[in-house]
Amino acid sequence: MSQAAGPLLSLEGLSLEFRGRGGISRVLDGVGLTVGWGETVGLVGESGSGKTVTALAIMGVLPSGALVTGGRALFRGTDLLAADERTLRRYRGSEIAMTFQLARAGLNPIRPVGRQIEDVIRHHTDLGQTEARERAIALLSQVQIPDPRRIYNAYPFELSGGMCQRVMIAMAVSCSPSLLIADEPATGLDVCTQAAVLDLIGDLAQGRQMATLLISHDLGLLGERADRIAVMHAGHVVEVAPTAALFASPRHPYSAKLISSCPRPSAGLADLVTIPGTIPDFREPLPPCRFRFRCERAAPECDEPPLPRIEAGPDHFVACRRPL
Amino acid sequence: MSASVIAQIRHGRQAISQNPLTLAAFLLLGGLVVLALFGEWMVPHDPMATGVGPRLAPPSQAHWFGTDHLGRDILSRVMVATRLDLLIALSAVTLSFAAGSAAGAAAGFYGGWVEKIVTRVVDTIMAFPLFVLAMGIMAAVGTSVANIILTVALINFPSYARIARAEVNVRRGAGYVEAARLAGNSPRRILAVHIYPNCLPPLIVQASMNMGWAILSAAGLSFIGLGVRPPTAEWGIMVADGSAFMMSGEWWVSTFPGIALMLAVLSFNLMGDGLRDMVDPRRRT
Question: Is the CB of A89 inside 8 Å of chain B's CB atoms?
Answer without folding.
Answer: yes
